[in-house]
Model the fold of this input.
Amino acid sequence: PSPLALWSLRGSVILIGLVVDHAILIVHRALHLMRDHGMDARAAIVGSVRPRIRPIFMSTMTTVLGMLPLVLPMPYFSDGSLSWAAGAGSELYRGLGSVVLGGLIVSTVFTLVLVPIGFSLALDLKQTLARLLSNREQPEPTTAAPLTSSGILRETSPDSVSVAISSTAEESDS
Done:
């Protein structure tokens, strides 16, 4: 374990740039699918993650494989035996490699799992707040029972069928 050095901090900056870029692309694509193609939120989120999985894994794997020699010792043959030695310059860049290597592996899982879940929760929260605020702004209208042309009070049933309430109407039928 080495102390947090300048190269470790530089590795953190590189890591933040990569992670934020992947998350922005997923959210941007989901918003594009919802606005321009009229997809619902869940389908748009799935549709935004699906084409990004391969590029995210490709950039993660190339970066991880590139940083691996800085963190792990490399095998070499010396006098017929296998020996392990750190790569050239790895003492200086080991902090950078460790931060980027570990952070990128963890953040890739977070980007592909937590970003879509968090975005879905944010959309649900937005929809819930909009529904609550729209109910608060518009009071429910009160409806009076309608009158017929003869002035007889009619009651509206729940299924919107009007029923005449009049004893005179029943008497006229008999």
